[in-house]
Amino acid sequence: MPGTKLDHKNVQGGKAWGQIKGKQEQALDDINLEVVQNGDYKDVEDLDEKLETYKGKFIEYDLDGSGDLDVTDVSYMMEKLGQPKNVLEKKKIIAEIDLDGSGTVSYREFLKMMLGNKSSIMKIILMFEEKNKEKERPSGPPPKRDLSSLP
Ligand SMILES: [Ca+2]
């Protein structure tokens, strides 16, 4: 039916939006549970905690609640993280983690990226953000993000 892909600008914060986000969270919870149960990542430290964090991130960036991160979602993510990219760069970022070639990043693909050993631009940027957050900043504006300062 038309209109299932909602415009987040109009509905975010509304009741319909809350329902979409609730459903979305449920779906991601199911995938998290499956990941824990199938044991692929049993060697990952604090797996439950990490899955919870990644779920939150995915929901935050999946603006329309479609269950996939598309170019628009990745644009928003990169801008929010202070790493604006052009369309080609965004497509490249997605292609690195888009295992089934759909042109979008599903939650399973997102988890594979975050939990796997393979490096990718999105992973580096997200990990960098996480590191930045951990640092305590009692006052003043946050320091300008700079990818060249990564280890
Ligand atoms: Ca995909």
Protein topology:
Elements: H1 8-11, H2 15-38, H3 47-61, E1 68-69, H4 71-80, H5 87-97, E2 105-106, H6 107-115, H7 121-134
Helix pairs in contact: 2-3, 3-6
The protein binds calcium ion.
Give an account of the 3D structure.
This protein is mostly helical and 151 residues long. The protein has a single domain (14-130), classed as EF-hand (Recoverin, domain 1, Orthogonal Bundle), CATH 1.10.238. The chain contains 7 helices and 2 strands. The chain has helices at residues 8-11, 15-38, 47-61, 71-80, 87-97, 107-115, 121-134, and strands at residues 68-69, 105-106. A two-stranded antiparallel ribbon has the order 1-2. The longest helix is centred in the first third of the chain and has 24 residues, at 15-38. The protein is globular and about 40 Å long. The termini are far apart.
Summarize this structure as a short list of keywords or feature phrases.
151 residues, two-stranded antiparallel sheet, Recoverin, domain 1, mainly alpha, single chain
